[in-house]
Amino acid sequence: MNKALEEAAKELNEATSVVITIHTQPDGDALxxxxxxxxxxxxxxxxxxxxxxxxxxxxTHYRWLPGIDEIVDFSRCNGAxxxxxxxxxxxxxxxxxxxxxxxxxxxxxIDHHIDNSRFxxxxxxxxxxxxxxxxxxxxxxxxxxxxxxxxxTQLYTGIVTDTGRFQYQNTTxxxxxxxxxxxxxxxxPNFIFEKVYENVSFASLTLLARxxxxxxxxxxxxxxxxxxxxxxxxxxxxxxADSEIFIDYLRAAKEAEVVAIFKETSEGxxxxxxxxxxxxxxxxxxxxxxxxxxxxxxxxxxxxxxxxAVGWINERINTYKTASTTS
Length: 327
Ligand code: 5GP
Ligand code: MN
Known about the structure:
This protein has 327 residues and is an alpha/beta fold. The chain is built from 11 helices and 11 strands. Manganese (II) ion (MN) binds at residues 29, 87, 112, 131-132, 162.
């Protein structure tokens, strides 16, 4: 990865204009890396366009992030020397920008997903990184960037959210070292915690109550799941973007091996967020349905009813368990 990191640094030094993008339905890691990269490049005098490939809607718990108002609709980005993609495992995760890739001579793909399709002209990949923000931190260090307190806050937010507050299996000693450094540079852990995790609306707590109340456990596979219907959003006044952290509450169940939340999308499809607490590789399960992600955190969009989707996942967990006990 170090060679790719150096190539990326060189390209960025030479570039005059850069479009910076992330995956659709962005999470904290995507937003944190987008904002820190953008802030650095802007301070370095580049013309920048921070964006992503769908209608820009910021989840409430990230609206406070420094620089968040500078994100613009992709239609407002002019041509650029370089496109940086952050936290995107493949082209499809780019939404509308997927069809525009050919307009960029240089694409710097910075990511930590094990299933990254290497769609960049430069691929800066580290599958051991707990968050894309860790890789951005290393790139900024390599470029001798002056990491100010806003950048430290943006990067720390990405790391704390993607590692489940430093508790998931992707948390390494390096993660903690980088986080410590970011605190020295001005990131405030308690402030960020309150903004991300204690900043939910009453409406979204009402929605969380529904999710917890209707959660079901499937004993023979260890699947613990719940769902959010489109009608729940109307009835509670919450938004789907605010539900990102709900899955952490389901993970708390002692018996759960795999945790899933199914969310009805406005296009009538079903988006599944999957988490594994043990050895089951939910990334591999998601890939069999055209989705993807990490071993312990993944997502997939299915054209199924909730019952069908539960059956689909149970079947795959069983296949996975059988394969790993016979191999
Ligand atoms: P979440 O459940 O929070 O939406 O996603 C969990 C993880 O899986 C994230 O790292 C996310 O990038 C990845 N992921 C979610 N949905 C997809 C998908 O449709 N395709 C791929 N390749 N990765 C996904
Ligand atoms: Mn990530």
